[in-house]
Amino acid sequence: MVLVLVILVSGAFLWGIAVVLTTFALLHPPRLTPARAMARLGRMTPADLGLRYENCDFTIESGRAEARVTLVGWWIPSIARSDRSVIIVHGYADSRAGALAWVPVWLDVGFNVLLFDLRGHGESGGNATSAGLNDHFDVWRIVAELRARKPEQTRQLMLFGVSLGATIALAAGETVDDLAGIVLESPVVDFIHGVNTQSWLMGLPGATVVRPGIWLAERWLGRRFAAVRVSRLISLSPAPVLAMIPLADAFLPPEHVEEITRAIGARRLKDQTSQVVDFQGATHLLPAHLESARYRDALQQFVNACTDYGLARAPAEGAGARQSN
After folding, report:
1. Superfamily of domain covering 38-189+229-324
2. Tell me, what's the pLDDT at 310?
3. Residues lower than pLDDT 50 in the chain
4. Distances from the Cα of 325 to the Cαs of 2, 53, 313, 314, in angstroms?
5. Domain segments of the chain: what residues?
6. Which of 95, 291, 99, 283 is nearest to 197 (CA)?
7. Could you say which DSSP state residue 29 is in?
8. Tell me: the pLDDT tens digits for 252-290?
């Protein structure tokens, strides 16, 4: 009996350690450093793609434990002078080097591009990530600072979120009510689903260790991941939303595709601009690679429609402002 008790207590102790370590790993993803990016992707900076760029870093002041954090970025000017810009928000455990993959298509449609490393990712400061729960505050501050630095190039500003970055872009869009539009690339409905799917793909014990680790992470961060579920954020977005959906994506089962499609459909009733573009046979993050011309055309049509929507909305908003004065 004593031996059984010792075994049970030891097992519970080891399980608790495993859960704590899992929580730590979730909030401290491996960084995609320049050396790792070169080894994995064959590129370190925009220069490796033949692109002109300048360093564009941001010092973020906040009330968190890390009161002052530097987020590193690159500013890539458009091919021809443009007053339209996009901020690309990369995904979990990725970096601005990984997000370079989408820069050419944005340059093709006439945009300046800002890429940056999220807090706790790449070369940016910060000891941990909030896995989408609080990162949008950093994006909000970057939007404000970029507009102050480059007012002529940011008269029309969009956000482009990749994977978990789609959640962050949408959450940031809630607090920036004059964005021209938000584009989602391979969105994951929420962090919990993303982690569970990755655990399943890797054969990890999700039910016994990962799920309790997620629960502990939520307690540590003080918020539930359900608060930033993509479909909910789409419904709250003040800006039109375009979702690029790969239909062979393990992170996007059919019921989640339907959930996002319904949310976009409801959004479209308000702005006549939001839409879903799906890509048969495309896996996570690969729609642009699989059908580059169709991807570019969909993006071009959306940004043009957003310009028309913004022009139509501006007089009404201006009239409202005049009446209230």
Report:
1. Alpha/Beta hydrolase fold, catalytic domain (3.40.50.1820)
2. 63
3. 315-325
4. 79, 44, 19, 17
5. 1-30+193-222, 38-189+229-324
6. 283
7. P
8. 999 999 999 999 999 999 999 999 999 999 999 999 999
